[in-house]
Model the fold of this input.
Amino acid sequence: MTVTPLTIDPTTHGLRDAIVHVSSRIEQVDDGPAHSSTVQNKRCVFYPHVAALRSGAPAEITNDDPVLHNTNITLDSRTVLNVALVAGGSPIRKPLKREGLHLVTCNVHKFMRAYRYVFNHPLFDQTNETGQFRIMGLPPGQHTISVWHETVGILNKEIQVPVRGTVTVEFEFK
Done:
């Protein structure tokens, strides 16, 4: 099984590769583009290990290894995609339509594991190397912000978004 170690910035103490999103119900949101996400098989590891994307955005699965891989994407233990990728084969594009945390595994190499978090709105981000994130376009009012990380779990926080201005949200995993 692949477990990515916690990557914590020594200066900010921020956690890298956590997925932050608005988890409360949202009435109106300015729809942004749905960018694709790559699932690259390389050196028997999935790259990137964690990624977030919009519902309907395509996942492009590639095999850069000289061996067969079988990329299996599941949501709530149900298969979304299960495809064999021969060495040097063509990439496969498949839209991930259902919202939720998708597990990516390889049936040939049981130690390979990654995640794709799919949202039906654009109000999400992935923390960078210093643990920072930015979610733009959140309407004024009270909202619940959630953060997920594969090792430390989930935290939720209630925030109040003003009509104008910026809100700073800090999460602390203990």
Summary: The chain has no helices and 13 strands. Residues 36-120 form a domain with the Immunoglobulin-like fold (CATH 2.60.40.420). The chain has two domains: 1-26+122-174, 36-120.
